[in-house]
Design a protein that fits this description.
The protein is mainly alpha-helical and 131 residues long. It has one domain. It is built from seven helices and three strands. It has helices at residues 7-15, 20-30, 32-47, 62-73, 75-85, 107-114, 117-122, and strands at 52-54, 88-92, 96-100. Strands 1-3-2 form a three-stranded antiparallel sheet, with helices on both faces. Helix 2 crosses helix 5. The radius of gyration is 16 Å and the shape is globular. It starts with 6 loop residues before the first helix and ends in a 9-residue tail after the last helix. 19% of the residues are buried.
Amino acid sequence: MSLTVDDRLLERARRGEVDDAAFVECVRDSLPYAWRLIEEVVGRMRASAGGFADNVTPPPDEAARGQLLRVLASDAMRGALERHFGVRLAFQNCHRVAAFAPDAPGTAERHAAFVSPRAQLLNQSPEFIDC
């Protein structure tokens, strides 16, 4: 299961739309490793002059890796986090998360390079074969 959803939030979802704030809170509480990692990458991105930061450290265990995969593979979760943090996220190799400031000069080019087939190929390593 991707998220742990409390009964009140589930009932709200059954009655209609759930706002981003409630959904983001559910993601944060359900996937704490993924939340902390993305929050840390976004913090470093904001502190940088270039409007970009990424993480190159693999998760400490498979449970953490699973959280990261779930949050970034879900359009709903990824979109909610991008809106919450005001960034564009990108992902490689089951752990390399990058945050881009949408309004920073050169963001479109930097993002395109990060998500290119060339970048994916160059970011391969034998220890990531089963990630």
